[in-house]
Amino acid sequence: MNAIRSRVFDLDEFPERSPVNLSRRGFLGASLGALVLGMALPGAVARAGDAAAEVTPGTRVPAFLEIRPDGTVLLRIPFVEGGQGVATAFAQIVGEELDVEPASFTVECAPPGADYLVMGGQRFTGGSFSVRSSYETMRKLGASARQMLLQAAAARLGAPATELSTEPGRVLHATSGRTIAYGDLAADAAALPVPGDAPLRAEADFRWIGKPVPRIDARAKSTGKAVYAIDIRVEGMLHAAVQHAPRLGAEPGAIANQAEVEAMPGVHSVHRLPGAVAVVADRWWRARRAVETLEVAWTEPAPDAATAMPADFSTAALRSTLEAAPGPGVDAEVEGDAAAALAKAARVVEAVYDAPFLAHGQLEPPSALARWNEDGTLDLWVPNQAPEVFQSAAAQVAGLEPEQVRIHSPMVGGFFGRHFS
């Protein structure tokens, strides 16, 4: 069993190399703000620390959409793309009502904030619940954005909005033959209030919802350009590799060769963690080689510890125990009356099947990156299924307020509950 897992850290021992804390949204707001719909979003609102009661989740268009000068759209969704296709699904849903082709969307997970608590005041990605929990909300969001663009075009063209229509990426005035691209209208539209009664497209007229469309993330993934947490880099960061206990419940005790490992090339420090040890170094490979070299004496867990794994545990022994257990067992699924059918059978063939424990391992090496900023805030790039949960937990561990922790949620390579807590 490979007990080595990688994590990435940026320590504050190097303040002179701390990167400038400039987000993409901040850069766009400062330099291209007049061209993106997102310019109207008050920055303070996109924080989980804000009271959710002050915002009706899923209703404020600028929190979700940025229409760029070239007509492409950045869509921030409340859910994480983990290979299940939600990025494409929401491009279809919002694009249907906004009148933008799904291929024109760039989709990313939204930061923690009240705007994105679209699941009854909370959000998490899992249980095949992302689309069905917010389908109508996201349709209305796209329809509202389209209505705002129509209103902006009406003012620009001096024509009633009722005379205007849209086709993918632009507004049309059929009477005069004039058209205006969405990218040219975004700044004007951002200044308008979000309508509360924008009409939705009839299901009979759907072009993309419910239809097969190419996955918008397929090319990046198939060409190695998709960015996961392990691919992210910040200036001056250090790397860490982790060696976990050989079994659940054990803790690191004495380390026989800690001084030798600390003297290895590039090694910064050695750390004891709950159920693991870690080595921080200037390069990940050096960190891994060093942590593999550590000679750790692992303590035995208390016999009554709820999370402890018995020292003599084996799959074979568990199978034997289950086979010897009295009673009829537990039915995983029942169809018809099997017992009655077997009782009437002229011949019965019996067989016992078993399967080993299978790890719900995603196709992504788990990794996280942390950066302390000079203003005392903390940025975390971490694969997760619930940004607000991770923000709250990180703030508690770091001794910060939740609004001082920025959670960046890159796409992940599979879930199975591993990124929830």
Task: Please describe the structure with a list of short key phrases separated by commas or semicolons.
flat, Aldehyde Oxidoreductase, domain 3, 15 strands, Aldehyde Oxidoreductase, domain 4, disordered N terminus, alpha+beta, 421 residues, 2 domains, 3-stranded mixed sheet
Q: Strand arrangement, largest sheet?
A: 10-11-8-1-13-14-15
Mean pLDDT: 86
| Helix vs. strand class | alpha+beta
Relative strand content: 15-25%
Uncertain runs: 1-35, 38-52
The H-and-E topology, N to C, reads as EHHEEHEHEEEHHEEHEEHEHHEEHE
CATH architecture of the largest domain: 2-Layer Sandwich
Q: What is the tally of beta strands?
A: 15
**Judging from the principal axes of the Cα atoms, what is the shape?**
flat
Sheet with the most strands, sense and barrel status: 7 strands, mixed
Helix share, percent: 25-40%
What's the CATH H-level homologous superfamily of the largest domain?
Aldehyde oxidase/xanthine dehydrogenase, molybdopterin binding domain
Number of domains: 2
Please give the radius of gyration in angstroms.
27 Å
CATH top level of the largest domain is: Alpha Beta
